[in-house]
Write a structure and sequence with these properties.
heterodimer; A: 273 residues; mainly alpha; MetI-like fold; 75% helix; 0% strand; globular; B: 352 residues; alpha+beta; six-stranded mixed β-sheet; six-stranded antiparallel β-sheet; 21 strands; binds adenosine-5'-triphosphate; binds magnesium ion
């Protein structure tokens, strides 16, 4: 009996939590299909009267969301691709290669993780301006081509691979380079999947940095474009909701597919250690 | 290929793992590297494969000095104790891997992989992953991977230590068979004397990084160079009777029991020695020089193992007796020629 009650309480609070978390999303989706009258009704109307993509059409006409979407995808692919590449190389170097000062350098890099992102914005901003890259897509990619945190996770995995695998490969005639790509990277696929997914999410949702370095409409990414759109379309909440749906939907789909990998990879990537 | 080790030494920060090691392995031989745990066997193997640089000495493959050569250039095959198969590749992928680095064309790769897989009997497992194989199968795949590139030298580091007793027995026959088929010079590391005695052409016995004896298996057993070799080989272990030499006779530790032995003829008086006798080298003989007392008798199938005492020292002997010995019997024993040695008690050196 006691157990039944505690189970009931547990499920009750879990359900409550889920409803609270999901409600804004529900409201966003349902409002994206409402007409202006429906959305301004009081008491509020839960579901739209009929499904129409009208709001999406109007929102897309008011701002170049397709362009924003392309920019977001382009920036994400480039920065995730480059970050993954540098992360793999750095993790391998710190895990396997012997060079003087390697422990010290790695500790210094780790200590850099203490510096808050907001502080980096200032220096990165002036670097980008000095390089003449202000208001270009490169400005959105360049500062995000390496990650100490992901390097740390991947190095943890590389360290756990037995030495004898490395020496077998060397004796079989492999160079370090070949060993890395033919043996280590395929073996690290679960960790890499996690890293890529987390990184993609972060890139997709990135808002503050684009706000500082992008001004022209054609270079905006989705979150920043949406923000500008908010001020322009402030009096049409249904259009705002439609635009938000476009921004959020890909992430939700990605997350649903990759949920399993994210959890698994984080659990075994040595985050606890 | 002939392998020559010339005063090879390896020092780590605080230990000398291998010290002034010199030996020659002839082409096509299977040599066991035998010794207790921590004596430097793996270290020696790693220097041969190029994984560890030497601290001193030189290594030659045939007439080529390979001392500073990187591992990928040495043309060796190596099987680690844990097999080190690539977990994400199939058996086929694993066996083909060394050939890919040599840029062998794909069709030939597959053909050679299949051929070698047949030799080690894993040809029906080509599409499995290592995690789907038993220990013995993994080991054979590892051997196949080491052999497929036709190495000049095959190194096996305790490849059988993860297997159960029966599989060990089977696999060591297998290794012997494969080695003889391919004729590749092979070094087989083990700390199991029986394994070494049963499969090798020659045994190199090490202790604390120092070569003790490099000889044929039967010579190692029948003609040990020193006390360590005599103690290391043989099951049950050799009996060591401490004592001194007086006028061509052996005087036991208690100072009373003595026996005259022809082999003591030339040995100076008062020298502290161990009379070391294998359990099978005692013979019941009423005119024998050793007066002993029986303390226990075990029936071991067709033989009897007797525990006896001579001059206060206990020892074991296989006794072939019609009437059967009993506890408390006083018997006289003589010694066979074979399996009886005299060692200096201070230096462990053999006295001949
Ligand atoms: N990297 C190292 N650094 C310091 N000492 C080492 C290192 N590798 C081995 N040693 C030492 O060298 C000695 C020989 O080690 P080695 O691994 O060659 O022994 P082994 O004969 O292979 O033993 P086992 O039968 O247990 O495998 C040991 O005392 C070991 O502690
Ligand atoms: Mg070892």
């Amino acid at each position: 009996m006691k157990r039944r009650i505690s189970r009931f309480c547990m499920y009750f609070f879990l359900t409550l939590g889920a409803v609270i978390m999901l409600f804004p999303f529900f409201w966003m989706f349902s409002s994206a299909f409402k007409t202006t009258q429906e959305i301004n009704k009081f008491p509020p109307q839960w579901l739209p009267g009929h499904l129409s993509l009208d709001n999406f059409r109007r929102a897309f006409a008011m701002a170049p969301f397709a362009k924003y979407f392309f920019n977001s995808v382009f920036v994400m692919v480039c920065s995730v691709g480059l970050t993954t590449f540098t992360t793999i190389l750095a993790a391998f170097a710190f895990s396997r290669l012997r060079f003087p000062g390697r422990k010290l350098i790695f500790s210094l890099l780790l200590s850099l993780m203490m510096i808050p992102f907001e502080m980096l914005i200032i220096t990165n901003y002036s670097t980008i301006v000095d390089l003449g890259l202000w208001d270009t897509l490169i400005a959105l990619i360049l500062p995000f081509t390496s990650s100490i945190f992901y390097t740390y996770i991947l190095k943890g995995f590389f360290d756990s691979v037995s030495d004898s695998l490395y020496w077998s490969a060397r004796i079989d005639g492999s160079s370090n380079w070949r060993y890395l790509w033919k043996v280590m990277v395929p073996m690290a696929r679960p960790s890499l999947t996690t890293i890529i997914l987390l990184n993609a999410l972060a890139s997709w949702n990135s808002f503050m940095w684009p706000m500082y370095v992008i001004s022209s409409d054609k270079n905006r990414t989705l979150p920043w474009g949406l923000q500008v759109f908010t001020t322009e379309a402030g009096s049409y909440p249904e259009l705002l909701m439609a635009a938000s749906t476009v921004v959020v939907l890909p992430v939700i789909i990605l997350f649903l597919f990759a949920r399993k990998y994210i959890v698994r990879g984080v659990a075994r990537g040595g985050l606890k250690g | 290929m002939r392998v020559v080790l010339d005063h090879v030494t390896k020092r780590f920060a605080d230990v000398t793992a291998v010290s002034e090691f010199s030996a020659t392995l002839e082409d096509g031989e299977l040599v066991s590297l035998l010794g207790p745990s921590g004596c430097g066997k793996s270290t020696l193997l790693n220097m041969l494969s190029g994984i560890l640089p030497v601290s001193g000495g030189r290594i030659y493959f045939d007439d080529q000095d390979v001392t500073g050569m990187p591992p990928e250039k040495r043309g060796i095959g190596l099987v680690f104790q844990n097999y080190a198969l690539y977990p994400h590749m199939t058996v086929m992928g694993n066996i083909c891997f060394p050939l890919e680095t040599q840029r062998v064309p794909k069709a030939e790769r597959i053909e050679r992989a299949n051929e070698i897989a047949r030799l080690v009997h894993v040809d029906m497992l080509m599409n499995r992953k290592p995690s789907e194989l038993s220990g013995g199968q993994q080991q054979r795949v590892a051997i196949a991977r080491a052999l497929v590139k036709n190495p000049r030298l095959l190194l096996l580091d305790e490849p059988l230590s993860n297997l159960d007793a029966r599989l060990r027995l089977e696999m060591r026959e297998e290794i012997r068979r494969i080695q003889q088929r391919t004729g590749v010079t092979t070094i087989f590391v083990t700390h199991d004397q029986e394994e070494a005695l049963s499969i090798s052409d020659r045994i190199v016995l090490m202790k604390a990084g120092v070569l003790q004896q490099n000889d044929l298996p039967q010579s190692l057993y029948n003609e040990p160079a020193n006390q360590f070799v005599a103690d290391f080989l043989g099951n049950p272990p050799i009996n060591n009777l401490p004592g001194t030499v007086e006028d061509g006779a052996f005087v036991a530790a208690d100072g009373k029991a003595r026996c005259a032995l022809p082999m003591l003829a030339g040995v100076e008086n008062g020298r502290n020695v161990n009379l070391s006798v294998r359990s099978e080298s005692f013979v019941l003989d009423e005119n024998g020089p050793m007066a002993c007392e029986v303390t226990r008798v075990y029936q071991m199938g067709k033989e009897e193992m007797a525990y006896l005492t001579f001059g206060g020292t206990d020892f074991r002997a296989y006794i072939d007796s019609e009437e059967g010995l009993r506890k408390g019997d006083a018997v006289r024993l003589s010694l066979k020629r074979r399996g009886v040695f005299l060692f200096d008690r201070e230096t462990g050196e053999r006295i001949r």
